[in-house]
Design goal:
Length: 292
């Protein structure tokens, strides 16, 4: 009668911002990758929907994506069962790691299993898209290309397992501020060419990690010394590549083996930092570990 679900983080291995859309959002192209850093959700029987959160700053229930996802699914399916949901946060909020979006997708998938609900994939995807731009990706996990606002997902062949260290430097970057700070002076075609090259390599199953990039780095790193310092910390300790994730503020680096990743994770340079050793997750591992 108890269902436990892991809700995994993501990193962005490529991110191009192509311009502002008529609806006010920005047109982006990005390559998502799930990693083993995760939150935990528990579902228990209850007469109505309830939500309890641990390790999360005081946030109104109505603003939590877990709650929004549960309500949306109940309304879509006319489900009369309840559920007592507990969310245990480990992924730092507002860190560019997709924690809230992952929580929403894990709630949709978890409640479908918990309630015994079967929805067409298209209906589940529609609910996810309405909750947030990154939520549809977390219905699949693994490696994928995101276009539009990031909600249009094309699955890509998984990469070999990689060891990752993520640093949350203790500062928060507003997504709106991050987009406002971008210099979109480069032509959209030049930005699109770079991400399309990365996409072509990923789709062909070729190695592309030496060419990962993020358009936000040009403005975020210079404006936020703590983030720049965190990236340099990873590079100086042997990261083969280090990069900002999403619009920040977390950075991540790839390491050649687990021992190196754990050694770096123990070498905390600043009291405000949180370091997480992790691994990339294939699509099969994503679902196995989500419910395993």
């Amino acid at each position: 009668m108890l269902l436990r679900v892991r809700s995994f983080a993501k990193i962005n291995l490529g991110l191009s911002v192509l311009g502002r859309r008529p609806d006010g959002y920005h047109e982006i192209q990005t390559i998502f990758q799930t990693i083993s850093l995760c939150d935990e959700l528990e579902f228990r029987p209850a007469a109505r929907l309830e939500l309890n959160c641990e390790n999360l700053p005081e946030t109104p229930k109505e603003e939590n994506l877990v709650w929004k996802a549960a309500i949306s699914l109940a309304e879509e399916t006319a489900e009369t069962q309840g559920a007592s949901i507990t969310l245990r946060k480990n992924i730092p909020p507002g860190a560019g790691l997709g924690g809230g979006s992952s929580n929403a997708a894990a709630t949709l998938l978890g409640l479908c299993r918990f309630w015994g609900v079967r929805l067409p994939d298209s209906d589940l995807l529609a609910i996810a898209s309405g909750l947030g731009s990154d939520v549809p990706f977390f219905l699949s996990g693994g490696l994928a290309m995101g276009t539009g606002r990031g909600e249009k997902i094309e699955l890509l062949p998984d990469i070999p397992s990689e060891h990752v260290v993520v640093i949350f430097p203790g500062v928060h970057i507003s997504t709106a501020e991050a987009y406002r700070s971008l210099n979109l002076g480069l032509t959209s075609s030049a930005r699109a060419h770079r991400i399309h090259r990365l996409y072509g390599q990923a789709k062909g199953g070729k190695s592309f990690l030496a060419e990962i990039f993020n358009d936000f780095e040009s403005s975020i790193l210079s404006a936020s010394p703590p983030i720049m310092e965190a990236k340099r910390f990873l590079e100086e300790r042997g990261a083969t590549m280090a990069l900002l994730s999403g619009s920040g503020s977390s950075v991540f680096g790839f390491f050649s083996n687990e021992e190196s990743a754990f050694a770096v994770s123990r070498a905390v340079a600043r009291e405000a930092w949180r370091l997480f050793p992790a691994k990339t997750l294939s699509r099969a591992e994503y679902f196995q570990k989500m419910f395993g």
